[in-house]
Each structure stands twice: as structure tokens, then as C-alpha cells.
Amino acid sequence: MGQGDVGSCCAKYILCMFNFVFFILGSLVLGLGLWLRFDKDSILALMKNVNSEHIDRFTEPQLVDQTVYIFIVIGALMFVLGFLGYCGALRESQCLLSLYGVCLIILLVLEIVLFVFAVAYQDVVKDETESFLKTTIKEYKSSGKEKDGVSLMWNQLMAQFQCCGVNSYSDFETSPFWLSNRGSRMVPEACCQLSDKTLITPSDLNCPYSPSDENSYYMRGCQTTLIDYLRANCNTIIGITGGLILVQLLAAFLAFCIS
User: Fold this and answer.
1) Tens digit of pLDDT for each residue in 198-254?
2) How many CB atoms sit inside 10 A of residue 183's CB?
3) Which long-range contacts (C-beta less than 8 Å, at least 24 apart) are formed by 168-174?
4) What's residue 175's pLDDT?
5) Are the C-beta atoms of 156 and 188 separated by less than 8 Å?
6) Which of 11, 197, 232, 244 is most buried, with most CB under 10 Å away?
7) Structure confidence at residue 147 as a pLDDT band (50, 70, 90)
């Protein structure tokens, strides 16, 4: 066996193993998405058997309806790419491997374009991010019994980044539901310093009614906080992005070598 045959054989089995794992993960994600789409009651009932308040927050029917298609799309993409890469490498099919390589190149180009756009047009990205946040905050309900995707996103965003609203707590005034259901609260519980970030439990129970700089982050907007976080972790983000690009390039290179 020549060196070329050895290299081709190694490339084949590396690609097979990598895409087999990718295929299995994609199948699981896609299967979960389809299960939730067509029979969500059974899986929600199964998850309800787990006695945990943390899990209960993520098993509300409305929240599941809003996220199920994300699982389906991501799972389907992983499933198709894994199938093309695994079967193409195993059978050494030029057609499947070429299609697999082209799909990876297209994804790679899209990722690079998005990354370059985000760096070159930071003001546009900032404005679009602010617009998105202001649009979603209008649908915010509360930190209480109302559990939907938008409210959960905002609660976790504010809890994890220790911020409140887009620019301050006054942004919640644009939410009709919040205005009609807040009672005597001035800010959502998630704007407070929390003893439990998953259950959104304020350290000071009086905080939602009387927020201050000592017990809350009510004047600290999430947009500025997010931008500061991205700038502080710029090197990490570039490193992760570069790693993903290298993995995709390697997979595409191996695919074209075998085909």
C-alpha cells in the first residue's frame, strides 16, 4: 500500500468517525424536535415526572411551541451533513462527498461573510440589535407565572448579565402586558440582585417594588452590557470562530481528497 493509499484511508476513516457522531447527534436533535412537534404532551408529561422547579420553567407548552422548529431545523441540517459525510466517505462516493464538501464551503462562506459584516459594520449591528431588543421587550410578560420564550429569554439575559431592559428599566413601559399586570412592582424580579438566577429569586424581596443601586441593576441597560461583554471576550470569540472554520476546512479538504 503506497503512501497515497494510506493517506486516503486515514482521511476516509477520520471523516467517517467525525460524521457518524455528527449524524447521530443530528438524528437525536431532529427526533426530539419532531416528537415535540407531533406529540409534545407525552414528552412534557415525562419531563414533569422529574421533580425540579428548574426543569418546570422550560417545559411550558407555549415555550415548547416557540422553540420546537429551532430543534427541527438544526437537527435536519446536522442529519443531512452527517449522512452525506458518513455515507460518502464509507462508500467513497464522489457524488455524496462532493455535495458534502460544497455544503461545507457554502456554510463557511456564510459564516465568514457574517463575521466580516459584524466587524466592518459595527454601528449597523448595534442599531439592529437595539431594534431587536426593543421589539421583543414589547412582548415581555413577567417573571411570574407567564412563561413564554420572549419572557424567558429576557429573564435569563438580565439574570446572567446583571442588567435591566434595553437601556434601563423604563423600557418595560412599552410592554402592555407588563403595565397591566405588574401591580405595584417598578421592575421585574430579574432586574434585581438574585439569590437564584434560574428561578429568578431576588435577594431582597422588596427590590421589585423599591429598586436601588444597592439591590438591583435597574439603570444598567442590557444592550451596553452585551457590547461590553463581547468586547471583553473578543479574543475568545475569534478563537472559537477560527477553530470552527478550521474544522470545516479540514472536513471539506478530506472530502475532496477522497472523492
Assistant:
1) 888 899 999 999 999 999 999 999 999 998 998 899 889 888 888 888 988 888 888
2) 9
3) 168/218, 168/219, 168/220, 168/221, 169/211, 169/218, 169/219, 171/134, 171/137, 171/221, 172/137, 172/140, 174/134, 174/137, 174/138
4) 92
5) no
6) 11
7) low
CB 230 within 8 A of CB 237: yes
Q: Residue 22: which of 259, 251, 258 has the closest Cα?
A: 251
CA nearest to 155, candidates 228, 234, 208 = 208
Instruction: Take residue 16 and report the three cell numbers written for it.
Output: 467517517
Phi-psi region of 211 (alpha: psi -120 to 50; beta: other; left: phi over 0): beta
The tally of CA atoms less than 13 A away on the side-chain side of residue 121 is 10
pLDDT of residue 47: 62
Contact 26, 77 (CB under 8 A): yes
| Residue (of 162, 154, 155) closest to 220 by Cα position | 162
Angle (nearest 5°) at CA 29 between 20 and 248:
50
Are 259 and 98 in contact by the 8 Å Cβ rule? The answer is yes
DSSP assignment, residue 164? -
Q: What is the reported pTM?
A: 0.72
SS3 145: coil
d(C-alpha 125, C-alpha 119), whole Å: 9
Q: Which three cell numbers stand for residue 168?
A: 434601563
